[in-house]
């Protein structure tokens, strides 16, 4: 065992070992098995990337019989190369060593560290040259991958350094690796990184080197630079509503996790840092909570995978003593949280009372997301509406998904995002990014935005007319976009959604044009969802024999079609599914009025939907181009909704006279009725 130099407090120490191992094996045996499996494979030069937070997953084992080719591209995908060089397996080799005491894991760590350093030298000249090529100096030394890699090496190091296999030579090599990564991450940072999730991934590495290894000559310089960069980045990259400005749930959580590690290490070591870092992190956890689906997963929007985020909520609950986060997280502290917080954190989590969040439905105003939900159980009704910009800057992870919706209820997913599948430059990348694979409206079979390649868009649709109102009796949101204003006969698009809790949504899509166009609504369903179309009633529905179902009722005269589609829940994975498309051609103003209702059982008894007459103050009958009103009746309750297409006005309908642009009247059996002006 090597002699150690000055080492500040890390997440875990040798004193925590017995408790951490026992707690992980007791509470998370499956996760322990997965870590050991991947560590065993790494000891044999075999690599898979199946951790829930592996950004580009691949469950196909790839083996190098001899010398590892660190530039190898599995199936031609460069993302496999960067996953190999991010080296999560090094952190897991360290954990496996503690979990088992088996020296093969320490030996594997040493061998892989030496092999990587030997085969991937980096000169100071190359480091300085990296600023000219802000992206990366070479494939194995991309900046964000280097930040991730050194953090994983540090995690493994704090376990294997107690092994007899770790001697002075190994310690010297490791410190040289720290010096090399620190120098690179410090010099290569450019203004573009300040506005990108890359900046956080790089800076987390620089921060940990500077804080944890103060005997390095430039440690204090690096630590100060890292803190300054974090301060600049939280101001530039994170909205006041807590959402990362790339508006991708996955990259939001990658940034959140980097900021968490920096804040928690600073707290443990009494290192001063700006209050805005902690405040921003607090807001980011709230945004995660707001977007989280009832099953505990993040939406698959904007290059995101179907990842369970309850581990992240666990860690936030401990750091901030937040019972609202615990209420939606795991009953016990998550596997990685045990490593981060040890016995004290586990016990603090046990003592922390779970409290329901202060909000139910919520509007992330700057990000443009609206989550409409009935309550906070796994059976909650939930609709997500995306009315945000493709991205504030750099639209690489953006999809053509303005006005997209997702819906789940009673523990079952119905409408979903199709996912991302790949980052390679091919037809599948285009397929998953374009508008047609999102639950949006399209005009004349055209996308809203101009796809150029995997990472670049040309003209992008921008949101307009955004408005949201959250009330205990309803939630309402609307947005349009300019994606079809460039047509020879321009079309102005607006989507309005009125949620009538707990189980009904009214979606009104309007198209304003002087010309003739073909309009379409797209609805992508989760895998294995059976679908039926009833052309006589212009209705589509799911057809589960048991549990929850979703019914979609159209008030127009269009046509439903059913089509095959793909759903990609994780990188490199896709499964066949089905989508519904509702089409109608029209000249001039046109509206789709769609009622979505969820219910238990094959068919909902007593559901009745009808359009209502509407008159103005002079008792003149108004037409469908001026206003839409409908009544939805279910056993024991009813809702009347009015949507004006000509701005706010005064209307007579359903036995009442009210003024506004969007109006709701709710009547529940035995409780009378209540009228609401949703939008004046």
Describe what you observe in this structure:
There is one protein chain. With 680 residues, this protein is of the alpha+beta class. The protein is built from 17 helices and 28 strands. The strands form 7 sheets. The chain has an 8-stranded antiparallel sheet with strand order 11-12-13-14-21-18-17-16, with no helix packed on it. The radius of gyration is 27 Å and the shape is elongated.
Give the overall form: elongated
Provide the β-strand percentage band. Answer: 25-35%
Tell how many strands the DSSP assignment holds.
28
Tally of DSSP helical segments? 17
Low-confidence stretches: none
Say what oligomer this is: single chain
Q: Give the radius of gyration.
A: 27 Å
Mean pLDDT: 95
Structural class: alpha+beta
- Estimated helix fraction: 25-40%
Distance between the termini: 73 Å
Strand order of the largest sheet: 11-12-13-14-21-18-17-16
Main β sheet profile: 8 strands, antiparallel
List keywords for this structure.
680 residues; alpha+beta; five-stranded antiparallel beta sheet; 28 strands
What layout of secondary structure does this protein have?
Layout: H1 17-27, H2 29-43, E1 46-49, E2 58-63, H3 78-86, H4 88-100, H5 103-119, H6 124-129, H7 143-160, H8 168-188, H9 191-194, H10 197-212, H11 219-237, H12 249-269, H13 275-291, H14 310-320, H15 323-327, H16 335-351, E3 362-364, E4 369-373, E5 382-386, E6 404-409, E7 412-415, H17 427-433, E8 441-443, E9 451-453, E10 456-457, E11 463-471, E12 474-481, E13 492-500, E14 504-512, E15 516-524, E16 531-534, E17 539-542, E18 548-554, E19 559-567, E20 575-587, E21 590-600, E22 608-611, E23 627-634, E24 637-644, E25 649-653, E26 656-660, E27 662-668, E28 673-679
């Amino acid at each position: 065992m090597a002699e150690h130099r000055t080492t500040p407090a890390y997440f875990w120490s040798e004193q925590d070992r017995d408790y951490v191992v026992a707690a992980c094996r007791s509470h998370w045996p499956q996760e322990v098995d997965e870590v050991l499996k991947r560590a065993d494979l790494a000891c044999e030069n075999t690599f898979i990337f199946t951790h829930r937070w592996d950004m580009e997953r691949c469950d196909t084992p790839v083996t190098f019989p001899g010398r590892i080719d660190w530039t190898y591209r599995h199936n031609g995908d460069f993302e496999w190369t960067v996953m190999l060089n991010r080296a999560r397996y090094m952190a897991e080799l360290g954990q496996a060593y503690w979990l088992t005491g088996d020296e093969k894991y320490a030996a594997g760590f040493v061998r892989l560290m030496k092999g990587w350093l030997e085969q991937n030298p980096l000169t100071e000249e190359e480091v300085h040259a990296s600023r000219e090529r802000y992206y990366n100096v070479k494939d194995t030394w991309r900046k964000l991958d280097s930040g991730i890699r050194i953090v994983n090496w540090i995690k493994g190091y704090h376990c294997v350094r107690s092994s007899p296999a770790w001697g002075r030579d190994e310690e010297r090599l490791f410190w040289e690796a720290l010096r090399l990564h620190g120098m690179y991450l410090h010099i290569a940072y450019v203004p573009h990184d300040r506005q990108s999730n890359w900046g956080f991934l790089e800076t987390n590495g620089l921060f940990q080197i500077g804080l944890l290894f103060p005997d390095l000559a430039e440690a204090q310089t690096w630590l100060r630079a890292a803190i300054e960069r974090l301060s600049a980045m939280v101001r530039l990259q994170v909205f006041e509503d807590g959402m990362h400005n790339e508006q991708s749930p996955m990259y939001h959580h990658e940034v959140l996790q980097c900021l968490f590690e920096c804040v928690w290490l600073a707290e443990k070591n009494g290192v001063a840092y700006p209050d805005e870092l902690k405040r921003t992190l607090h807001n980011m956890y709230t945004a995660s909570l707001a977007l989280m689906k009832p099953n505990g997963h993040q939406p698959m929007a904007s290059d995101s995978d179907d990842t369970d985020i309850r581990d992240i909520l666990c860690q936030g609950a401990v750091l901030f003593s937040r019972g609202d986060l615990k209420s939606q997280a795991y009953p016990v502290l998550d596997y990685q949280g045990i490593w981060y917080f040890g016995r004290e954190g586990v016990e603090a989590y046990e003592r922390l009372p779970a409290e329901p969040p202060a909000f139910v439905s919520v509007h992330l105003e700057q990000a443009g997301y609206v989550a409409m939900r009935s309550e906070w159980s796994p059976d909650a009704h939930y609709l997500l509406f995306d009315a945000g910009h493709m991205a504030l800057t750099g639209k690489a992870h953006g999809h053509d998904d303005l006005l997209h919706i997702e819906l789940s209820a009673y523990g079952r997913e119905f409408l979903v995002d199709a996912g991302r599948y790949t980052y390679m430059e091919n037809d599948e990348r285009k397929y998953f990014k374009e508008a047609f694979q999102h639950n949006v409206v399209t005009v004349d079979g055209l996308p809203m935005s101009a796809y150029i390649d995997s990472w670049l868009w040309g003209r992008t649709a921008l949101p307009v007319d955004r408005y949201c109102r959250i009330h205990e009796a309803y939630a309402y949101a609307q947005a349009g976009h300019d994606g079809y204003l460039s047509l020879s006969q321009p079309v102005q698009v607006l989507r309005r959604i009125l949620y009538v809790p707990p189980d009904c949504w009214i979606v009104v899509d309007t198209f304003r044009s002087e010309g003739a166009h073909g309009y379409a609504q797209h609805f992508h369903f989760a895998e294995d969802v059976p679908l039926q179309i009833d052309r006589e009633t212009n209705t589509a529905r799911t057809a589960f024999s048991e549990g929850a179902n979703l019914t979609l009722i159209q008030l127009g005269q269009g046509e439903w079609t059913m089509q095959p589609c793909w759903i990609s829940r994780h990188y490199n994975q896709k499964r066949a599914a089905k989508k519904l498309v509702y089409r109608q051609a029209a000249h001039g103003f046109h509206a789709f009025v769609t009622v979505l209702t969820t219910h238990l059982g094959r068919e909902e008894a007593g559901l009745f939907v009808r359009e209502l007459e509407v008159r103005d103050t002079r008792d003149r009958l108004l037409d469908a181009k001026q206003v839409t009103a409908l009544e939805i009746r279910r056993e024991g309750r009813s809702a009347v909704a009015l949507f004006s297409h000509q701005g706010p006005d005064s209307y007579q309908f359903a036995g009442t006279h009210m003024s506004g642009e969007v109006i709701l009247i709710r009547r529940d059996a035995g409780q009378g009725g209540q009228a609401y002006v949703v939008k004046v």
